[in-house]
Give the backbone structure.
Amino acid sequence: MNPVRKRRLIIALLILGAVAVATGLSVFALQRNMTYLFSPSEVDAGKAPDGHPFRLGGIVAEGSIHRVSGTLTTDFVITDRFQSIPVTYTGILPDLFRTGQSTITTGRMEHGTFVATQVLAKHDSTYMPPQVAQAIAKAKQENRIPRDAGHGGAP
């Protein structure tokens, strides 16, 4: 191989290696900052990350909103009509937040309670965030299948 081609090959390989390292670092950084949306059924099934922030989406359960007097702390329950997760939030809630409304909360699980750092409420009476609608549909589909359906009837 002549020296000019050898030098071009080395430069091309160095550029390719630098692009690969930059891509790897970008993917690693993005994965650490991503927050995934889970329904209460998925959280109950253990699919949510332990100790890491994630989004919990569902509907505010009827009669579950309790405000702690003298503070900005509010306790409520988010449900997908199959499973329910207790939530605690300290801060000002959105104006549209109320019982029976779809909501997405960001936070993490601590001792069986979801501690929210942010609460988002839907904007009108017919809108449901696509992720929440998909999670509820998935939960409905999973609960229709008998638990022993994949085992051929054997225990």
Q: What stands out?
A: Strands lie at 37-38, 54-60, 66-67, 73-79, 84-90, 102-110, 113-121. Residues 106 and 129 are 14 Å apart (CA to CA). The domain at 37-145 is CATH 2.40.50.140 (OB fold (Dihydrolipoamide Acetyltransferase, E2P)).
